[in-house]
Amino acid sequence: MQKKSKVLTCALLVCSLLVPSAASAASSYMPYSDISKHWAKSSIIRGAQYGLFASGGSIERFYPNRELTRAEFVALMDRVFVVGQQHLYPLTFLSEHDEFGKGEGFDEPYLPYKDVDRLTWMYGPTLRMSVLLDRLYGPGAIQEIFPGQLFSPNQPITREEAAKLLAIYTMETDQQKAWNMVNEWGWLTGRPSDKLKRGEAAVVFDRLVQFLQRDVMLPLLDYDGQKFPMVPEVQDMFPLFAPYTDQVTGDDQIYVNAAEAIRFHEDSEETFRALRKLAEGTFDNKVGVHYYLSWDPDTEIADNLEHAFKAIDAYFDDRIVLPDTLQLLVANVYDMALQTGSTDPKMYEKILERLNGYEQKIRKNTKESEALAIYQAALEVKVGHMDKALEIYRAFAPHHQEALKNLVYYLVQNEQLSEAEAFLAGLQPKKTEVEIIQLTRLLQQELAIDLEQASIVRDLSFTMGRMENLKGYKAEGEAVLRGFLVKYTEEVDRLSKARHATGIYQSPQKLVLDKWESYTDTEKNIKYERNFDSESWEPSRVDQQEFMSDYVAGMSVKDRARILGARYYKQSFGEYDIITEWIPGDKIVEAAQNVSLNHGKIKSVPVYMNKYYIDSDSDLLVKHVWRYEEVYDTQEYVAYAGEETYKTQVDVRVSIPREVVKGAAR
After folding, report:
1. What is the reported pTM?
2. For the segment 83-97, what is each residue's pLDDT rounded down to a tens digit?
3. What letters, b where the CB count within 10 A reaches 16 and e where it falls short, cover 311-325?
């Protein structure tokens, strides 16, 4: 049992899924008999440890010099995505429970190839990657990479084909530049037409996994308001803080047992009673004792915080410079600052003041000083001292990833884009600082998108205006709202100012499907909905917002950008331009104060995201995908997700039958 919030644990948990355990990473581990002298041996071993390659049992050989097939490469892409999909979630909106994009709906997607049998091992991975590409780039995106009705799964994959798939992780806005980007990243080299061998593929995915572990995709995006201020990932939250052998006895054994109990969530009152006894005595590992006492779930958070500070005091009393240890100890304090500061903001200042007192104990411009400074800056942000935070970040941003991301992010938030550009342009990392080089490139790329926000807003506004000026169109969609599953077709007739929708839905309380039909008079803002139980039509107003998402959807694109701070990301792929929209939840909550909603006052908006797929020739909307989450002061949680596709080259004529209006008036 722990009081710790997700700040310390989330990144570690996600990363641990991709990082081999200490035991399996042993140099003696050799999963295959034919790789001992191969140049890609290390990457092949790590790939087996990651779970990318099957090993054990009857699998004795890897065949590193054999050409990799299209199906095999797609399967590897699928395995990386399934494990690390949180990196692409802001662009795909696909959660672990929604791997096919229609996981909450009625229809399963299909694979647009005739030569991939549903009963083979390759069908699932190929289908998932097809859905992923559809969600990222629009309908039929996989056929932009592998054209035609045949996938030819056993055909060796070329480096260029592989690059087009790998490009989803480069954040390149123009897919035609995929090969150059993947080549610059160092994931793939050689000639585009060359075939990829299995050993080479192991190296490619080893580099990709290492890249994903750093969580640098869309580095400035904070779509749910939880990312910034960014602090370093904690690699090991449960060290012993001193060397111990397997033969420990006495107090050492008591301490090791207590630490292990906390690590494996097996702690009890006796665990912390034993630690308190050690703290009161002459036990010399005071750092570890006080650190683990700060995890006691049965004491007040203030007492835990005191133990966390005593652990830092003990660290400096030992006079041994261990930056990673200091980082963990300060991260522990920062974690408690977030817990206490959420209810008492003054705690941020009090904790910051105490941390500032340690500066005099540390040499400046050292790893140890950075271990403290990154959390000082984060607390400066929390107390509203942005100038001070930026000053701290500037000091070591050129060689520290989190400091660099924070610096550029808050410069952008303060509308100091030119200063952010100048800082990035002035960086001169060494060739060996590959991580800083890649991060700088991604930051510059995303900053360029920020500088194009006005242009993207105009483009999306133009498309929405074109849709509004159509005589009519047909929308087909699936959605889930508050547990209700809906599949529908809606015809929209602008000339008659009427809409007609038909479909089926499933209530969370019922297993059977029900019919659904409605007419909407868009001039009078009245919807007539069919009650199939009573065989009657029931009217309702459509100009009264039920949820905050209804209100936001009614705003123009320009107002969403101007008032709500909506942020946009535009990519091009094949025949489509794809615009992703994220709106900060706190801005929506702020706007909600002046909006009357049927469900009461909104408390928080964890997620508000849209994707718009636009035909680049006609500038008309082809598809819309959305995911919204809202929490009300009644503790009601509302999740709304779905997608619609649009047919605009159709003759739509809708008139509301007289018997519908007449029946609803009774």
Report:
1. 0.89
2. 778 889 999 998 765
3. bbebbeebeeebeeb
Give the CA distances from residue 288 to residues 259, 262, 285, 293, in Å, rounded to whole numbers and listed in that order: 8, 12, 6, 8
Closest CA to 575 of 49, 159, 190, 147: 147
Bridge-based pairing of strands 576-582 and 484-493 is unpaired
DSSP 644: E
Give φ, ψ of 77 to 5 degrees: -60, -40
CA distance 393 to 410: 10
Could you tell me if 242 and 625 are in contact, meaning their C-beta atoms sit under 8 angstroms apart? no
| 355, 333 contact by CB (below 8 A) | yes
**Is residue 444 within 8 Å of residue 552, measured between CB atoms?**
no
Provide the phi-psi class of 587: left if phi over 0, else alpha when psi is between -120 and 50, else beta. alpha
**Which residue has 């097809």 as its token pair?**
130
At residue 377, the pLDDT reads 98
Q: Which two tokens stand for residue 162?
A: 């592989």
Instruction: For the chain, give the number of residues.
Output: 666
28, pLDDT greater than 80? no
Give pLDDT tens digits for 44-81: 999 999 999 998 888 999 999 999 999 999 999 999 99
Q: How many Å apart are CA 237 and CA 504, to the nearest integer?
A: 50
DSSP 96-152: TT-TTS-TTSSPPP--S-SSS-TTSTTHHHHHHHHHHHHHHH-TTTHHHHS-SS---
Answer for the pair 427, 447: CB distance below 8 angstroms, yes or no: no
Q: What's the CA dihedral at 295, 301, 304, 306 to 10 degrees?
A: 160
Q: What span, in angstroms and rounded, lies between the C-alpha atoms of 103 and 639?
A: 14
Q: Which helix (H) or strand (E) holds 502?
A: strand 498-506
Identify the residue whose tokens are 């994931």: 187
The token pair that represents 61 in the structure block? 């050989």
Beta strand spans in 199-298 (E): none
Answer whether 490's CB lies under 8 Å from 475's CB: yes
**Which pair of structure tokens corresponds to residue 372?**
């403290």
Residue 565 region by backbone torsions, left for phi larger than 0, else alpha for psi between -120 and 50, else beta = left
